[in-house]
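Re: the multi-chain job from yesterday

Posting the exact lines I submitted so nobody has to dig through the queue logs.
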Amino acid sequence: MKKLKLGGNNILLAITVVLFVVMYLGGCIIYADKGFTHLQTFLNVLINNAGLIAVASGMTCVMLTGGIDISVGSLIAMDCMFLAVGMEQWGMSSPVLMILVLVIGVVFGMVQGYCVAYLEIQPFIVTMAGMFFARGMTAVICKDQVSIVSDKLFTAISNMKISIPFGGYTNKKGIYQVPFIRPTVVVALLVVVAVFLMLKYTKFGRSIYAVGGNQVSATLMGLNVRRTKLLTYTLCSLLTSIGGICYCLNTMCGTTTQATGLEMDAISSSVIGGTLLTGGVGNVLGSLVGVFINGTISTLVKSNGKLVSSWANIITAILLCFFILLQAIFAKIKESKKA
Amino acid sequence: MENNIVLSAKGICMTFPGVKALENVDFNLRKGEIRALMGENGAGKSTLIKCLTGVNKFEAGEIHLDGIDGPVVNRDTLDAQRKGISTVYQELNLCPNITVAENLFIGREPMTKIHTVNRRKMNEMAAKLMKDLDLDIDVTQNLEEYSLALQQMIAIARAVDMDCKVLILDEPTSSLDDNEVAKLFVMMRRLRDKGVGIMFVTHFLEQVYEVCDGITVLRNGTLVGEYSIEELPRVKLVAAMMGKDFDDLASIKQEGSGDKSKEPLVIDAKGLSHAGTIKPFDLEIHKGEVIGLTGLLGSGRSELARAIYGADRAQTGTLKVKEKEVTIKNPIDAMNLGMGLLPDDRKAEGIIGDLSVRENIILAMQAKQGIFKKIPMSKQIEIADKFIEMLQIKTASRETLIKQLSGGNQQKAILARWLATDPDFLILDEPTRGIDIGTKTEIQKLVLKLADEGKSVMFISSEIEEMLRTCNRMAVLRDGAKVGEISGDDLTQEGVMKAIAGGGK
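And the result, structure tokens for all chains:
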């Protein structure tokens, strides 16, 4: 058995996990009367953030290469609107639409990836253009601003409950509540596992780390840096589209203002989960915990009841500062150790 | 191919903006031969290598490789590797954030049946490779855990393992200590005996004569000649590189040396220290004195300089500059007191690659004046031209981006930056590292000239010889502490060696 060395990066991940556990246990103690201790509370975090989990997985990959993708929020809005309008106004079947959404994601990502990798334009600028484009298209697709989904199959999937055989409780009326998750959660977790394995065990995954570590070196070692980047952005948009479908299953509508700022949630989840903005260091499992932390914060704020929901943002801000500070400190320690 | 030639380049031409980098250069390498590629900075060595390995596209000429019919075109490094040309570049080309094993095998990892990377097998192969080369390295650790020297050895191991016909080593020894160099040479000789042709670029002349069979000399982007090692003794080699009869470094007399202890004190440090880098030290520096800092790499030479300069803020002790007690919080304070520091890592701390030569030279002067008092353009041009002329900086024009200059010329430009501020006390941290012998001599002469003008210089170098030539006095460091000073008659190679090695002064 290989000894797990507690390097700076592992410590960061460990701190993230510990923070999540402490935060959650704190919630359990303070808000025990409001049902925080029930398994379902945690499962709700998963259900509410299934889309975000998929997006954060893709975002982590892009950030590992040293890039960024701020188009994901708008892309989700476009996906949702496309699904909603497609089902309601164009009368298309939902499976076909879902596949189309994935195709749109791939094409969208390829165009962005091409601009970043082959035309060597700053990722921030490229994906900002993508962001405006997708947000604009969302409004073009639907002129009514909002489209509610009523498709039967889609509604069925959305309402489907997958029961968990343990952790139930009896509510005040004496009815036993079985904890459940939605299919979207299964999809999101599968995405995380797939990306984790991809990053660790495939050539492509390792190339992502190499490119993020030192792009010049990666080129000189004979890696195809451009193709790796192109594929990473494509992957990110594809995963975002998967997240978009999950998101739509959750909200059951398409609106022009949907998922505004979601890109920032994805980025902050990755950073809190230990991904460095400079690339090369990070892990998709960390990002998953990052999403948990984000979700827990808003649940905590909601449980309080008196606080305005904006407090969730402020707490996230404090956490982000805390983690960036930690990363900087660890980088410093590492440097001084070497010298 | 005839004469056992494994790699031959004919009539290679290559132009960078405004500079003819290579003009009609031939290069031949035989099987089982170690050939040194020599030349001053900017002679075109790195450019030639980049042409051979497909990094740069050359404009004219042909490359032939043994076993391949017709001219070879390498699209990129990977392509060159597949054809049998492996390269270890001057700057480390590995990724610090992935494991040693991955660095060794990335791009050609062993795969499992389901087409995923077989990490266990990769680690086994890597461990075996390290063991073969007598390196004690845990291949599952990230590369950044290891020292630069070990990283360099790993880079070489990677290149060696690729079943290459031609191995190009571009200054692989600049960050290695003697022991590691010896290991490298064993490795090189073993490969030569297996029939690999090795092209070896180095600035250390003694290494050339220790390990090489032949020498190819470049100057100003043209071929001077191809020689066997016997027909080109040291002096002739230097002459060939410089293109003139070499007046030898001996021409620098120790005229500057002598006792300066009567002169007024410029720097008087008492008990200065910085946690974790340098233990408390005392140091006095007089006007017009050149003081050398010596010690092994990592003994705290740069750290001592940084503590005085305020780049690392001193945490204890007092510092008097020109007999007045001062507190230096940051480099600007130091500059205002008339200090200048030429850092040792010129890529990271010195040049600003995307600014022109003129802007780089003017930088420290402008900083000293404050950002609101812009130096008039005409004055900037005047100063830039003066130093380009004085230090003979080879550049297409004063507006050329500094990153396009060769290493030695970049170094000169940074030196010019500090000279422009007219400092009383100048710290030069490894000013001659990675610089050709001609420029080295110029810089040494310049140091002596500055001292003659009454400026004090702190000179840090790994080459004891050049320190002996320039310094009046030397401070010896060991393990982050100043352990002694040498002056007068003790200032000999032997004396310095003894002091560095320790065991009594």
